[in-house]
Amino acid sequence: MKKGLDYINEWDAFVQAENEAAFHELYCHYFKYLSFIALKKGFPVNKVKDNINDLFLCLWEKKGQLNNVVNFHNYIVSSFLRKLYRKENLEIDESMFVETVPGLQTYPSVESQYIAQHTQDDLSRILKIFVEKLPDKQKQMIYQKFYLGLSYKEISETNSISINTVYNTIYKALEKLKIEIGKENLSAFSLALALLSLLCLIYFQKIS
Amino acid sequence: MQEKDIFNLLTDEGFCNYCLKTNADDVEYWENWLEEHPSERENIESQKNLIILLANETAAQVTQSEYQKLQRRIQLSKKNNRKIFPLIMRWAVAASLIISLSFGYYFYHKAQNNRQIATTISNKTAPGSTKAILILANGQKIELSAAANGTIATQSNTAIRKTNDGRIIYDGDSKSLLYNTTITPRGGKFDLTLADGTKVTLDAASSIKYPVSFTGKERKVEITGQVYFEVAHNAAKPFRVLTRGQTIEVLGTHFNINAYDDEPTIKTTLLEGKVSVNYLGINALLKPGEQASVKSGVSDIRVKAVDTELVIAWKNGLFRFSKTGLRSVMRQISRWYDMEIIYPETLKNTDLFEGSTPRSANVQSILRKLEVTGHVKFKVDGNKIIILNK
């Protein structure tokens, strides 16, 4: 599992050789890491995404001058927090923060890689196409719910919608997925079953 | 089967937490549940797999679409930079010069006016400063921050001189063995030069007892709290530091000792030269960059390599943390700002703090940084810092 400072090679490749692939790797990691931190703090989702891209645009433009950054992880997270809070009129002029964010799973975990390898191609393909076709809002919420593990309440706050709308949106998305899997006539009976109970689960939670 | 489905439904949040491993209780609960219902394992596993696959796929796509937006902005800014930037830059430089000059002038005047007011308002939360008390061999106490510059006392043949920058220097060669003690209060820090030229810096709530002049075969001092030494080289007279039952023997070197009573271990860190640490009959020889830790009453010395910059950050006017727990952070804050820390009955915070911040800031601004970055809240009440779970 890779986290924060394990990306030192990517950082070096980016800073010293302006390697775009390394920049992409860093982006993929920190996009999730930073959005987790900020969404947990209740910042609106659009502001969070804008600030992450502002930060990476800065990094890209300053890449030649980043050689003297001692701890890049500190640097990235503190620059991000500064950007995020500046607009809230909150002063943070120094870098200090937690390296280990409790609650954020580092992906891809060993387990999820294992699962991906042992899943039928059919299912991976269906999932890929399915997610591609999802409207942005639904994609966003599935990401927040199932990847970042935010609670329904947190999702409703960060997207400024009601908890009910969050339930419904996710429910609808999963229902679509069930139909897609059904269409393909997958023999993965247990998967369909799993999905069914997932649907019920959301449904019941909504009424309870 | 039916029963389990409904069961699932009601505990969705917990089940998600189990899949994502975001909550130890939920993971434990589901693992126990699986132990008891082995026949359901396959079903539960496939649910879990689906959630993880869906999560990964969605995360990858969401990230990718944001990355494409970023790429477009990078392209755009490349184009714009070439055309507009130089012009804007010229104006921006001119404008910012004018603005900063006029602000500077304004604040300079304002500061002049405010200086008198500011000194009369005492602020409990201000940081520590240069202050210490000197206890002479005859018991006389001298407050060093208040003492005038120049010779402040003479004992035997040794003069004690205070320099313009606030250091205390011992000059001369007395024949008799007289001991002085310098103590810094909480919120104080002090620099001192001993009769042999050894430079000593005391952190807050620390002390050093030393002879006015080193007459014997060895140079022996006793310390408490945290002290940084730059020992003057003298192979003929080894330098010995005693603290909480530990002896450190030196020839000529730079090192730091952290021996606060409320810290779990005594830490001796070597920056240059060579020292030997002795505790309860055990010896350890340190190389530069190494740190010896000793636990009170345990006859064992642990040696490991450390970041020495981190250890002596206090001497350079910084708080520096590297994977430092909240309690350790708060002990340092408590000593420097002379404040009492009140913990909640059960402290939920397990964050490790990382980063640095100047010790010259007031306590509120440091607490705010900790709040922003960690899962903890503070309330300042008089000279108490009350910690609340977030």
TrEMBL record, chain A:
Domain named RNA polymerase sigma factor 70 region 4 type: residues: 131-177
Keyword Transmembrane: yes
Pfam families: Sigma70_r4_2 (PF08281)
Keyword entries, A-Z: Membrane, Sigma factor, Transcription, Transcription regulation, Transmembrane, Transmembrane helix
Transmembrane intervals: 186-204
Family named by the database record: Belongs to the sigma-70 factor family. ECF subfamily.
NCBIfam families: sigma70-ECF
Protein name, UniProt field: RNA polymerase sigma-70 factor
TrEMBL record, chain B:
Transmembrane segments: 87-108
Protein name from the UniProt record: DUF4974 domain-containing protein
FecR protein domain segment(s): 183-275
Native species: Mucilaginibacter dorajii
InterPro entries: FecR, FecR_C, Ferrdict_sens_TM
Segment forming the signal sequence: none
Superkingdom field: Bacteria
Transmembrane is among the record's keywords: yes
Ranges for domain Protein FecR C-terminal: 319-387
Pfam families reported for this sequence: FecR, FecR_C
